[in-house]
Amino acid sequence: MSFRLFIYYCALCGGWAAFVGWGLGRLISPTNAYGNAGIKGMWLGMLIALGLSLVDAVWNLSLKQMGQVIQRVGVAVLVGCVGGLIGGIIGQAFFSFLGMIGFVVGWTLTGLLVGTSIGVFEMLSGVIRQQDVQGAKKKLMKALIGGTAGGAIGGVLAWLFRSMWMGVFKVDSAEELWSPTAWGFVVLGMCIGLLIGLAQVILKEAWVKVEKGRRAGREMILSKEQTTIGRAESCDIGLFGDNQIERMHAKIVMAGNRYFLEDAATPAGTYVNEQRVVGRVPLQSGDMIRVGASVLCFREKQKR
Question: Is the pTM of this model over 0.90?
Answer without folding.
Answer: no
